[in-house]
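TEACHING EXERCISE
Course module: macromolecular assemblies
Task: Read the component lines below, then compare them to the predicted structure of the full complex.
Student: A.B.
Group: 4
Components provided:
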Amino acid sequence: MANVYVITGPSGVGKGTLIKLLLERLPQLELSVSATTRPPRPGERNGESYHFLTPEQFAARVELGDFVEHAEYSGRRYGTLRSELERRTADGHPVVLEIEVQGARQVSAALPDAVRIFIAPPSPEALRTRLIGRGTDDAEQVERRLAVAVEELAAASEFAHVVVNDDLDRAITELAQCVGATLEG
Ligand code: 5GP
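Instructor-supplied answer key:
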């Protein structure tokens, strides 16, 4: 299997922004589209942002063993479909997974060669400011996500690679170096 890169860290840390820039710098990388039971946000399209599934559909696919990893996060389910990974790696593309911490832990068992990178905020306060500032979640969701973030931050030491997203230019350079150094070929 081609290289798999797992990018994890708390919600609001800027994983999405960093990954977007990473894909621009290293265009051979492909982003795996996850499945979720959370409703689409405005502008999100099925099959592009996520594969949006009902809880019943998600549960059925868990039963079928269709997920490489899956987790419950803030009351919703999220998971990486085996078919997504296989489709992209079959043609030799290295794949990026953007997932939360429980899923990132599972991946080390399922895909032992995956490179796992934790994105950390410069401070817990910076996370709160970002989560509120991006305006994608209501106040209750922000609080739930911050509560989870406290536990997620404690997991940073489990990962060999930690990139602090203090300054976007600096962080993307470090992330691209980390990924680039282990790309095959
Ligand atoms: P959001 O609802 O903000 O899109 O995502 C919430 C959290 O779920 C984020 O930390 C995101 O990285 C994570 N996530 C997205 N896709 C997956 C996935 O396939 N598996 C797991 N375990 N987490 C995911």
